[in-house]
Amino acid sequence: MTSLENIPVKYSDLISEIETGQVKIPQFQRKFVWDIKSSAKLLDSIIKGYPIGTFIYWRTNERLRAVRNLGNIQLPEPKDGEYVNYVLDGQQRLTSLFATLKGLKITDDEGRESDYSEMYVDFNAQDDQEIIITDPSKLEDGTFIKVTELMEGSLTLLAAYPPEYHKSIEKYKKIIQSYTFSVINLKNAPIDVATEVFTRLNVGGKALTLFEIMVAKTYDSNKQFDLAEKYDELKEELATSQYDTIPSATVLQVIAILLEKDCTRKQILKLDKEKFIGIWDEATNCIKQSVDFFRSYGISVSRILPYNALIVPFSYYFFLHKKNPTGEIKKRLEDFFWRVSLGFRYSSGVESKLAQDIEKIEKIVKGELPKYEWAVNIDEEFVENNGWFSTGKAFVKAILCLLSKQTPKSFDNNLNVIMDNSWLKIASSKNYHHYFPKSWLKKNYKDWEYFFVNHIVNITIVDDFLNKRTIKTKSPAVYMKTFRKENEDLAQTMRTHLIDIDKDGIWENDYDTFYHNRLKRITKALNKFIIQQDTPKSLEVYEDIEEVEPETVE
């Protein structure tokens, strides 16, 4: 049972615990940020007998990922089975104190080095002045002493200083050596309790993410398993496939679904460490197979995936069925993908819905057609009402997937458009082009309405060079004539964008005709992917509501 133990700790014991590796900084702690002057003030408070606050440890025999020892100082690892004191509160004070008393050099994350041996006791300082200083250049020789010499010097040290300061040297050394530090040990606590305590103690800071907690919980030095490093390696592998934007929360959801068919925060925190490590390779292989499926399906980059959470049910499919889907199974997986993407499925309550949806995947694997509790009735009105262009909306991303599936060709040479995650972050990014430029329509089109101009129906996927340097703000009739001279297959090219250059009013700059014709094509193309079946209710019209996808399992 979790308990608190309030104990006084002497200077020698505190230093010994640090030196023997019994005090560690857990992964979820932030980096050491105090400068040497702040550290001097801390020791000054000790010299004056002031309280410096309580150190709070999580005392456990679990082995966590300790990113660093105090201040990145290399210290020995504790022996197997020994208890470790993971610092929940007091890292800055402990690191400052240890570095000062040992005269260590600490290098921060930017490579700047601070020499903590340059800390001095001013013998002539009054109680209302700073006794501990960092710059003795204005003091006379013999009127100050290094803190490290004060604590480690022998009796012969006194001979180097004027007799009138001998009592001060002995007094200050005794004050530090006899100072009692207040320590609270949190004992017999699971990691989620320890991290909750840490979060509450640091209410002014950033709350820990579930991933940060799981990095600490699953660390195993013997098995060389470090979740943070493993995730970075996975992202590097996925980067070659343009799927490196998959968040850590999605990876945790996959593992939890594979192990427990449940991916709530509570369940993830309860996952057995050995099982977690044991399934890592298989889980990440399932993720990579899912990515390969999406890419072969025409969704070439992860930035347009309607929901990152789609990785979870598809990974579960590859967990149950190692081979790529074919025939009816493939059609039903496609049907599932589009129902989720067009039906706002994971826009809320994603964890519970994922648990429901893996049952549908199980039915698909068995050759059955799942029953869906949400309807997907796609008509032109629905596409129009939900197609306000924003790269954060799942519905818009679904249509971008549709456009990507057409393998869009470049207007000028009929070669495949290169899509890149870094070009697809926001609505003004390089790959997105308003076929009828907004500025041109605002100036020239009498029925200009911003909603229908900045609509997914008016968006094409093009190369950066064409979008920003060639097309610019010209009307379609102008820039398409240029491309017709360069590209003899222009009609075929535009069909890959679901545009008919001879029927869509392009040469007349007729936006009305273009908009309604392309709206029909998009709607018709979307409906081809949906297997029609009876559903309990009609799909809601979300109109102009931004779809915000939950990226974490918090």
Keywords:
3-stranded antiparallel sheet; 44% helix; disordered C terminus; 22 helices; alpha+beta; 5-stranded mixed sheet; 554 residues
Textual characterization of the structure:
With 554 residues, the protein is an alpha+beta fold. Helices cover 44% and strands 9% of the residues. It is built from 22 helices and twelve strands. The strands form four sheets. Strands 1-10-3-4-2 form a five-stranded mixed beta sheet. A three-stranded antiparallel beta sheet has the order 8-7-9. A two-stranded antiparallel ribbon has the order 5-6. Strand 5 (105-107) and strand 6 form a beta hairpin. Helix 9 (248-260) runs parallel beside helix 12. The longest helix is centred in the middle third of the chain and has 24 residues, at 273-296. The protein is elongated, with a radius of gyration of 32 Å.
